[in-house]
Amino acid sequence: MEMEANVEVAATPVHMLQSDFNLPIQEIESHRKQVPEKHLMIAVLQDALECVVKYRHAHDLLGRRLFEDAESWLLAEDTGWPYSFECICAVLDLEPDAVRQRMRLVPSRWSANLPQATVMAPRQSNPLAG
Q1: Using CA atoms, how far apart are residues 36 and 66, in angstroms rounded to an integer?
Q2: Which of 6, 41, 42, 117 is most exposed by smallest CB count within 10 Å?
Q3: Which DSSP category does 18 fall into?
Q4: pLDDT (tens digit per residue) in 6-50
Q5: The predicted structure's pLDDT at residue 31
Q6: Burial, 51: exposed, middle or buried (Cβ in 10 Å; 0-12, 13-18, 19+)?
Q7: Is 32 helix (H, G, I), strand (E, B) or coil?
Q8: How far apart (Å, rounded) are the C-alpha atoms in residues 116 and 98?
Q9: Dihedral (CA of 19, 21, 25, 27) sign
Q10: Positive or negative CA dihedral for 60, 62, 64, 67?
Q11: Whole-number pLDDT of residue 6
Q12: Among 85, 83, 84, 96, CA closest to 125
């Protein structure tokens, strides 16, 4: 019986085993030759996005705190430090508002003015590019 279950999973096309929700980071990770700083930025962004997905509806104190911390970081428009959400998006060529919108974190005051953007939309300018 156990063998039959494994055969069924093995015969299932890979795209049917994946979730319907893809994090933007999954697109970025395909580029294996990244400098260590970019790897760290990708990990920081991935952790925040996973916390939002995992703890969005949490009722326990720890889960709520993890969600609120990630949400606060993702909504901050700070560019004063290299690992801020805005700076990470600039380095990774992501549109911050598109990521926020995809994660359903866009405050209502922004959502009326935003076009239906894709998460991987290129930025108009990169303030950190030299």
Answers
A1: 25
A2: 6
A3: S
A4: 444 445 454 444 445 556 666 555 555 568 999 999 999 999 999
A5: 54
A6: buried
A7: coil
A8: 8
A9: positive
A10: negative
A11: 46
A12: 96
| pLDDT tens digits, 70-117 | 999 999 998 999 999 999 999 999 999 999 999 998 664 555 555 554
- Dihedral, CA of residue 17, residue 95, residue 125 and residue 36, to nearest 10: -50
Q: pLDDT tens, 82-93?
A: 999 999 999 999
Q: How far is CA 106 from CA 12, 31, 38, 75, 116, in A?
A: 36, 28, 25, 8, 12
Q: What is the pLDDT of residue 96?
A: 94
Q: Which residues of 88-121 are buried (b: 16+ CB within 10 A; e: fewer)?
A: bbbbbebbbbbbbbbbebbeeeeeeeeeeeebee
Quote the radius of gyration of the chain (alpha carbons, Å): 17
C-alpha dihedral sign at 103, 109, 112, 118: negative
